[in-house]
Description:
Layout: E1 2-5, H1 12-21, E2 26-29, H2 31-41, E3 45-48, E4 74-77, H3 79-87, E5 91-93, E6 98-106, E7 124-131, E8 134-137, E9 143-147, E10 155-158, E11 163-166, H4 178-188, H5 200-211, E12 215-219, H6 224-237, E13 241-247, H7 255-267, E14 272-275, H8 277-284, H9 290-314, E15 319-323, H10 328-334, H11 338-345, H12 352-356, E16 359-361, H13 369-378, H14 383-386, H15 406-425, E17 434-448, E18 451-464, E19 472-473, H16 478-491, E20 495-500
Parallel strand pairs: 1-2, 1-3, 3-4, 4-11, 12-13, 12-15, 13-14, 15-16, 18-20
Antiparallel strand pairs: 5-8, 6-7, 6-9, 9-10, 10-11, 17-18, 18-19
Helix pairs in contact: 5-6, 6-7, 6-13, 8-9, 15-16
Bound molecules: xanthosine-5'-monophosphate (XMP).
Xanthosine-5'-monophosphate (XMP) binds next to loops.
Amino acid sequence: MIIIVDFGSQTTHLIGRRFRELGSEITIVTPDIAIAEIEKELPSGIVLSGGPASVYQEGAPTIDPKIFSLGIPILAICYGFQLTAHLLGGKVISGRKEYGPATLQITNLSGSAGQITKGLSPKSFVVWMSHGDEVVSLPEGFMIIGSTEHVPFAFVEDVKRSFIGLLFHPEVEHTEYGRHILANFIRICGNPVEEHKLDIDELVANIKEKVGEMFVIGAVSGGVDSTVAGVLAARAIGKQFVPVYVDNGLMREGTEDHVKKIFTSQGHVEPIVIDAVGETLKSLRGIADPEEKRKVIGKLYIDIFEREMEKLLASSKPVKFLLQGTIYSDVIESQGTNLASKIKSHHNVGGLPERMKLQLLEPLRELYKDEVRTLGKTLGLPDEFVWKQPFPGPGFAVRIRGEVTKERLEKEKQADVILMEELEKARVLQSIFISFPVMTGADSVAVKGDGKFFGEVVALRIVESQDVMTATWARLSYDVLQKISSRIVNEVPGISRVVYDISTKPPATMEWE
Length: 513
Ligand code: XMP
């Protein structure tokens, strides 16, 4: 097992993923508990991740220097390398900031008998940089393996301490031979390198073994994760899996049909569909506060689900498991980072397992979003499923500022259909992470025919994002924007105008509330 100490880099999870792809087990830990974990687990290797801090900054994360004398191979990336240099007597300065590609020249192929550079035939290749600080003097015992034009100490090693330092990021796709370097590190740790491929048969067999003769209930939403998890479960245990779709009216048009179609055609199980539209709207009456909306929706969802469970138990189906489409980023995020733990806390099915004494079944727990999509494709799910936009648990309720009424929900849905249609026609959907109209709650004046009237302003939120933490607005053509605006104003009753949201995240979030 390899322990990764997370100094807060956006790519820490990616480092973990790369090691898993190469057949290594990994654990990600925070710096404060790192030494204790390392001494307890005795990993075969340690990775010190990058991070946004500067080593001289007050409160910058650090690590017990003891780890450098444990005899465990260490790969330190960016901040991890700067911190090591700082702790062992080298010097770090706020140097030339570099973001993006640089050319690395390998100047010394023989360090540590060439283990870290083994099989690396080109002497120069492109690496990806993302650093503000730079190591300008190395601790004793360190030697240079490679440099870039601006950074002499870009790739270094200390054979005695079994330490390798990289100022560049081997985990990102754009670094040529990054994977190769990571594989060499795994070998230095004494582990085998085995390309890890997604194995559907194995996933299916695991579910079968865990579930046995019991029944599994699953809350399905039509989203990629719950669909892929559900289809896997259906393949594994057939009718012992009971998918439940609660139609609260807050999901995209056509979601119910979508869910029915996928489970009957791919999984050969009929989902239970519960009509909760009236009940949901009633419980949302008079509520304008976003958090209150989330609470009400979440609670109602749990109540409805519980009722369904009781029915199943009464029909003598021993339901022991709750299937969830939890993916690896959810696991990491709920363990601690800021934003994502918040998203988890108001996820629809949160709170269910404890109340119902159910065990969790999470077949996608180890996978990243793109791996889930690949799995979906391999399972034979249609593209429209695999490339579906994420949709928030509380649905359209958080895209309607203020009170959610039947009329405003109708308008929101109509505008959403128009927006999707036009984005599809313009063939831009594939580059968009998430797109939706917002009922802003603001009124403005418009003239339709001869009459002047005040109607609601609709805002369009259309963003591109890779990592969810950051996003930018889609640079759609004016013609496409014009078409969307005209159609919404003309076709959706009571809408006076359409505005385009050009805020980036951060500081603005994707959703409006
Ligand atoms: P933000 O608005 O935080 O959105 O930039 C990032 C991602 O999270 C989704 N999101 C939610 N998902 N319940 C959810 O299940 C929520 O309350 C919620 N709020 C935001 C959002 O749709 C985007 O994919």
